[in-house]
């Protein structure tokens, strides 16, 4: 009986912060794939298990990650390990002026609350994903100074005007 009771207690403890843990885990998974992650050294569970306290991360009053702002922070990496599914409340993603390379995954369309997307001044290549056009809340999109190929997807014309 006793071990079972302890297990129940643990389960209860784990259940409560499940949302922020998922977001923290998603951010840490991405961090692990970054070369020169000095600027996000505060992204660590030993610092705080609450990602809201990490540098460049802002949360809503309800504790969801709503902004990631890492402009000009020498971040060198890709979106391969960026879990767009785990950050549903993100309204602002500013990773401009860094060393991001690789492509923008079409799953960026999972960020359905996104209003501001700035990936300008990086080394991204490939196509501009047409799925960006389905980000119905997007107000400000900046993709300048990268190395994209192909046409500007017509789907971007679906984006609302300010
Ligand atoms: C923990 O995070 C805070 C907020 O970003 C930062 O000021 C502090 O330096 C961090 N501490 C360590 C040990 O990284
Ligand atoms: C980027 O950061 C570096 C070092 O922190 C600084 O010297 C440089 O002026 C910054 N560049 C821009 C465009 O903000
Ligand atoms: C960025 O990381 C890649 C490896 O992923 C490396 O080839 C490249 O030299 C790095 N760029 C800089 C400026 O450190
Ligand atoms: C934040 O995300 C959670 C989980 O997906 C959702 O229940 C909640 O409504 C979202 N809040 C906003 C403001 O979108
Ligand atoms: C951009 O792409 C072209 C052709 O694929 C390549 O030759 C060039 O080196 C790339 N530039 C940068 C800055 O990655």
From TrEMBL:
SUPFAM superfamilies: L domain-like (SSF52058)
Taxonomic placement: Eukaryota, Viridiplantae, Streptophyta, Embryophyta, Tracheophyta
InterPro entries the UniProt entry points to: DNA_repair-toleration (IPR053211), Leu-rich_rpt (IPR001611), LRR_dom_sf (IPR032675), LRR_N_plant-typ (IPR013210)
Compartment(s) of residence: Membrane
Keywords, sorted A to Z: Kinase, Leucine-rich repeat, Membrane, Receptor, Repeat, Signal, Transferase
Source organism superkingdom: Eukaryota
Pfam families assigned: LRR_8, LRRNT_2
Source organism per UniProt: Rhynchospora pubera
Gene Ontology CC entries for this record: membrane
UniProt protein name: Leucine-rich receptor-like protein kinase family protein
Main location per the UniProt record: membrane
């Amino acid at each position: 009986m006793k071990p079972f009771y302890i297990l129940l207690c643990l389960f209860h403890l784990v259940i409560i912060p499940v949302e922020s843990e998922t977001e923290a885990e998603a951010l840490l998974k991405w961090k692990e794939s970054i070369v020169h992650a000095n600027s996000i050294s505060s992204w660590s569970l030993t610092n705080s298990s609450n990602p809201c306290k990490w540098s460049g991360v802002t949360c809503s009053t309800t504790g969801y990650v709503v902004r990631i702002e890492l402009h000009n922070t020498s971040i060198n990496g890709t979106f391969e390990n960026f879990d767009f599914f785990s950050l549903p409340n993100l309204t602002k993603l500013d990773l401009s002026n860094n060393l991001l390379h690789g492509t923008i995954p079409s799953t960026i369309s999972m960020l359905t609350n996104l209003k501001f997307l700035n990936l300008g001044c990086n080394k991204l290549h490939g196509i501009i994903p047409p799925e960006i056009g389905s980000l119905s809340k997007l107000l400000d999109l900046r993709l300048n100074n990268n190395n994209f190929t192909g046409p500007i997807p017509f789907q971007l014309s679906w984006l609302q005007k300010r």
